[in-house]
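Figure 2 data, in text form.
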Amino acid sequence: MGAAFSQWASNAFATSQYGVTSWSASRATGEPDVVDCGDNGMAWAPSTTSEVATLTVQFGTPVVPSEINVVQSYNPGTITSIEVVDVNGDSTVVYSGVPKVGADCPAASAFPVTGVTTAVDEVNITIDETVLDLGWSEVDAVQLVGIAK
């Protein structure tokens, strides 16, 4: 096995996005760049403040995952599902939960991944803004950690 490897998303698209440039899915690629908690066009936001939306991020190097880190820069705590997609196109849900108000903002949340033995290069993150009624939930960056194959 190889050494642990971490990488930030290099490509992204979403079921919904607020803007073409600002607040677009592509804003969730690369390292975090939103410093303060708040509404910021440097992060991805869905098109409305009361929907369920999925952000799909892709990575340049497939890895057998051990952890997914999601940086939310506005109204964290709305992630309800994280799914990894392996190099064969098969998907596995690695996290499922209910929205809850986040204590910190910006928030870097670590989601451990177990039981996935095939290299993945894509992650789907679903947020649900309908439960907490906080307004926009924004994602600044997504990091995939694992063993490169």
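Caption note: The chain has a mean pLDDT of 96.
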